[in-house]
Each structure stands twice: as C-alpha cells, then as structure tokens.
Specification:
The protein has eight helices and nine strands. The protein has 270 residues and is of the alpha/beta class. The protein has a domain of 180 residues: Rossmann fold (3-Layer(aba) Sandwich). Strands 3-2-1-4-5-9-6 form a seven-stranded mixed β-sheet, sandwiched between helices. β4, α4 and β5 form a beta-alpha-beta unit. α2 packs across α3 and α5 packs across α8. The chain is globular and about 55 Å long.
Length: 270
C-alpha cells in the first residue's frame, strides 16, 4: 500500500482535459467566500501568490466585489492557467519551487483536497510568506458527498461483497486548525460553510463532478474498476434513500476555509 493516497500525474491529466467543458461552479463558490473574507481585512496585499490557479476565477470574484487587482499576482498550478493575464508558474502544491518570504498573501481556491501530505504543503506555503503574510484557502471538506459515498459503499457490498474507496477522504473541521498550527501558522482559523445543492437526477451529479475536474484521483493501488452494475445500483439507492418533497435529491457540499499568518499577527477586520 502506498503512503501517497493521490496520483498527482492522474490529477494533471484530468486538469489538462478540455472535454467535457470545464465547469467552474465549485471554484466560483469558494472564490466568492474567500474574496468576502479578503474584503473585510484592513490591509492591502501587494505581492500575491494564487495556488491551484487553473483559471481566472479569483480575478472575476474580486471584480464583482469591487476590489482592485493585486499589484503583483503570481498564479501557480499543475497545468498552465487556461485564461489569465497574470504571471504564471507551473508548480505542484506538494513541491513549491519558490523563494522563502516572497509573498504577502497566498490564496488557494481548491486543490488542497487532492494533497496527500497536507501539513507538509501548508508548511511550504508558510515558508513562501513574509513573517506577517496571510494564507486564505478554501476547498471541499467535512461531509461533502456523503450521500454518494454511502450509496457506492452499500451497492458494492451488496453486489461484490466488499467495498473499495470511491470518494476521496475529506479533511474534518476539527482537524483543520490543528493542521495549520502544526504547519507553523499563527492565529489559525478554520470554518465550514455548506453549499445548498440538489439534483433532479443523481447521474447528473457524476457528470458535473467530471466537468469540474473533481472526480477521484486515488493512487493506483487504491483504485479498483467500478462495475456498471454497482454504479447503477448506487444511483438506485440514491434515488430511494435521498429524496426531497419536490422530487430532487440533495447533495452535501461543505467548504472548508483556512486562514493563518506566517508569523505572530492577528486579523483586523472592518
């Protein structure tokens, strides 16, 4: 069994795909909430690093909130950003080739849900911040996709007699602040926000996850082929077990937000 739960090469290939068309819904939800937090801080950040920056979601969210662009905005991702005028760096969240103490602010929209060594990645982020630099990050966590996870496990146990991992493990809110503290951040803050979501047909959820590049990228020794019969049974269970009065089916999406300083400092909000 590998010590690395995720396949970074598979993740890179998924991000490089242009079909189906990229759906930014989840990134938009995260960005709006991060920008709201950013707008409440009485400080101007000049040198900014955006990680997992595969598109221009952050710029759009800032423009809609009436915030000016950053003086220096560096975007880093496993693949080159698709549309952006900012400075670009191809870099892995798990191995940042950037000089220490270079940035006032690091923003991460998604991406951390696919990091195997999250404390290590957070420590690298802290290293590139100036002493009082700020990290703002958001990514799916908590009980996200618990309905889908439950139905896949039950269907596979029923038809195969055993279950394989199908949905990536999620970071729990109780552990999040401790992870920031372990990585050396000062004044660590973690909170969770739910995104109300429901589908007429659960199969559309799977299609949207693929379009958002959010399908599982588990390591090879954790992956097992998903039988068609198991998938069909899981969707049947979803329709039976999780149904709202209006005929739609709920999907739990919880966004985990992290904030912390590279050195002793406290948040000052307006």
């Amino acid at each position: 069994m590998t010590s690395q739960p995720f396949d970074r090469r598979l993740l890179r290939r998924r991000l490089e795909r242009r079909r189906p068309p990229f759906e930014p819904f989840l990134r938009d939800q995260i960005a709006v909430r991060l920008v709201d937090r950013l707008g409440s801080i009485r400080r101007r950040f000049l040198r900014v690093l955006e990680l997992a920056a595969v598109d221009d979601t952050l710029e759009r969210a800032m423009a809609e909130a009436g915030l000016p662009p950053f003086a220096q905005h560096v975007k880093a991702a496993l693949v080159p950003p698709w549309r952006t005028g900012a400075m670009r760096v191809v870099a892995d969240l798990e191995l940042l080739p950037l000089a220490p103490g270079r940035f006032d602010l690091v923003v991460v929209i998604g991406g951390l849900q696919w990091v195997g060594d999250l404390p290590g990645a957070l420590a690298q982020i802290r290293r590139v911040l100036v002493r009082d630099g700020l990290l703002l990050a958001g990514f799916p966590g908590g009980a996200s996709l618990v309905e889908l996870r439950t139905c896949l496990v039950e269907a596979e146990l029923e038809l195969v007699g055993g279950a394989s991992p199908r949905v990536a493990p999620m970071v729990d809110l109780r552990d999040a602040a401790a992870l920031l503290q372990r990585a050396g951040f000062a004044s660590p803050v973690a909170d969770l926000e739910a995104v109300p979501l429901a589908y007429r047909e659960p199969l559309q959820l799977l299609r949207d996850l693929r379009a958002m590049r959010e399908t599982a990228v588990l390591a090879a020794d954790l992956r097992r082929p998903l039988r068609r019969a198991v998938l069909l049974r899981a969707l049947e269970l979803y329709r039976e077990r999780f149904s709202l009065p209006d005929g739609t089916h709920p999907v739990t999406v919880e966004l985990l937000f992290l904030a912390g300083f590279g050195g002793p400092q406290t948040l000052k909000t307006s």
